[in-house]
């Protein structure tokens, strides 16, 4: 009896510890983002910024920017469906789109939470194993990182002088990136996690026991293999290129909203986009602070005053995230209503859609 009570209390303690850790993590990320935002805008006159945003902005181009963003989200949805085809999974396009938009919304609440929410929603309403979905999403992230590196290389070749100047003007950014990548603790921890998983699986096999980790890894591998074995890989690649082109146009179109950036070339937009994308990698909600800093510094390479660069970053970032918040919230509200009478169909020959 005492042992049972002790076990119960230990389980409760572990659950509470996990919840407390998640709360502390959320508070830390939020505080970091707010602090970075404050550091960027602490010396700005917000009345002057509001005056500029109220009187000197062509909001038609902001609307155009949001249309490009919406097209990228639709394309990401269709690309995800293509990745799921080799797994014999054919979710409704509307459910997949809602899951994608919800993931962006959740990432604003807690960094990296969107991927889990996205897979969780589709798993719930389409009855698809979570681990399979997560495998395809991880593959997406790898491919998107490759695309980002490709665009960085493209910007590096086409805007070499500006990138060198950025490194000279912001040595702390380059130094921090180098410290992270060269940290032995990072690679030791990664190797330790992989070794622990391998040992656990091997020991379980020798004892003739099944384990959840192996089952999850099997489904996870199936998700990754799906991309490599898909029949419509050309369409997958085309969607990937389209998504990133829309991301680029989403930012560059905002250039035409201001007189002080409307003259900048598409290459200036490319370098700004690439540097801003690395700001989104920072572990803060929606890249707040880090994204604004990178955009301001990138525009500074083209003689855009710091204040104007910050105003531009504020408008571009706010409009993108406003769309995510509105669309994401609507999607989360609608998905249980839309699927109230829906029962997933597993016929691979069906063209189940909206």
Keywords:
354 residues, 79% helix, disordered C terminus
H/I helix tally: 14
The pLDDT mean sits at: 80
What is Rg? 23 Å
Number of extended strands: 0
- N to C succession of SSEs: HHHHHHHHHHHHHH
Q: Strand pairing plus helix content: what structural class?
A: mainly alpha
> How far do the termini sit from each other?
55 Å
Percent strand equals: under 5%
Helix content: over 70%
Characterise this structure.
The protein is mostly helical. The protein has one domain. Helices cover 79% and strands 0% of the residues. It has 14 helices and no strands. The chain has helices at 2-41, 46-55, 59-84, 93-109, 113-126, 130-158, 160-169, 171-182, 184-206, 212-229, 233-252, 266-280, 290-300, 306-338. Helix 11 packs across helix 12. It is globular and about 70 Å long. The chain starts with a helix and ends in a 16-residue tail after the last helix.
Topology:
Blueprint: H1 2-41, H2 46-55, H3 59-84, H4 93-109, H5 113-126, H6 130-158, H7 160-169, H8 171-182, H9 184-206, H10 212-229, H11 233-252, H12 266-280, H13 290-300, H14 306-338
